């Protein structure tokens, strides 16, 4: 397609095109942008990409990304270690932390069950969660299932509920309902049904 | 915003966010994608970014990007050196080359006149074009103005027409009209006006 460009530009366009959500046209534009940027900015990006995984590992406890073998959240004694919030992705932890509402710890599954895509329980950090619960196994413990409210997230939540049944822990699911600022008019039936089922006394 | 992520991920998200058309959310998703990609792919991208400008320079003649001091097009003797197609950007050369229709040479301005953005003639490779034309200055020469058919491109074309008036070269402008596959119904007035003005005898 861009065989009229020098090799190094073509290579970069190809590499950019491999990224999700970046088509050949965007990749071209990004490469051109960098070509017109000062060399320091270009090297800044190159360095940031190259160093991304340097010193990074997954937390031994919750499988969140971390600079230590145990992440800052798991290592924090002021957090409630008996409350485990199960999420699909690292970014879900970031989103929940941003609320400053949650004071427990996390467990990152790194995906959701999706038989169509060949994602079974073995591909996720499910056994690690079961081991974690088994080790504690107290009625004081709560496992909050915060997988996404879509088909795959619900399947995963359902699977986890069953897998955790043998233990005496409390298993809860985050509320589904109308988003704040949302419009009842535009809500789908499933969301409305969940919103009605999850109604609480007005105080 | 993402202060709950390790430093190296935050740095990459910041670097990605600086790129045009990539917001903080996309930057996060790109960083997460790379985090889950094999290290070889991550280093592939890092290398491609870092090596982008290695061995690249602008062609001494036409200011296109090149691996040599004179680009492959300018150095090609089979191309008509008396026909100069003036374009705004490097990617315009790529687009025109893709047609395999044009056999002349190019001149890349690296932008278009835009007083609002502080882009005057000095910021573009206009003097270089004038020098080039002056050096040849023959009636055999044609300068094809292929700047974009928008406000800035038209302004630039107009400016160049005037600047090249003292020389005996022929100055032409690429045709404006309905794009192939376009709908007359949806065309704006300016395009229709230009399409009517530029009508040619049916053969």
Can you offer a commentary on this structure?
The structure is a homodimer of 203-residue chains. Chain A has 203 residues and is of the alpha/beta class. The first copy, chain A, folds into 2 domains: 44 residues, Orthogonal Bundle (Helicase, Ruva Protein, domain 3); 145 residues, Dna Topoisomerase Vi A Subunit, Chain: A, domain 2, CATH 3.40.1360. The first copy, chain A, has 7 helices and 6 strands, in the order αααβββαβαβαβα. Chain A has a 4-stranded parallel beta sheet with strand order 4-3-5-6. In chain A, α1 crosses α2. The longest helix of chain A has 13 residues. Chain A is globular. The model of chain A has no long low-confidence stretch (mean pLDDT 90). Chains A and B meet through α1, α2, α3, β2 and α4 of A and α1, α2, α3, β2 and α4 of B.
């Amino acid at each position: 397609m861009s065989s009229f460009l020098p090799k190094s530009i073509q290579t970069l366009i190809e590499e950019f095109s491999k990224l999700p959500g970046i088509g050949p046209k965007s990749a071209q534009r990004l490469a051109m942008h960098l070509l017109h940027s000062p060399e320091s900015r270009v090297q800044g990006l190159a360095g940031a990409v190259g160093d991304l995984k340097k010193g990074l590992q997954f937390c031994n406890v919750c499988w969140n990304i971390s600079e230590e073998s145990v992440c800052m959240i798991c290592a924090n004694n002021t957090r409630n270690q008996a409350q485990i919030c199960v999420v699909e992705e690292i970014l879900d932890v970031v989103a929940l932390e941003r609320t400053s509402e949650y004071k427990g710890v996390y467990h990152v599954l790194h995906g959701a069950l999706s038989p169509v895509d060949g994602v079974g329980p073995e591909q996720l950090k499910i056994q690690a969660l079961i081991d974690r619960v088994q080790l504690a196994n107290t009625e004081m413990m709560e496992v909050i299932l915060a997988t996404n409210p879509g088909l795959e997230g619900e399947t995963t939540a359902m699977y986890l509920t069953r897998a955790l049944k043998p233990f005496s822990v409390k298993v809860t699911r985050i509320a589904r309902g109308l988003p704040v600022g949302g419009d009842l008019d535009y809500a789908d039936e499933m969301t409305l049904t969940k919103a009605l089922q999850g109604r609480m006394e007005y105080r």
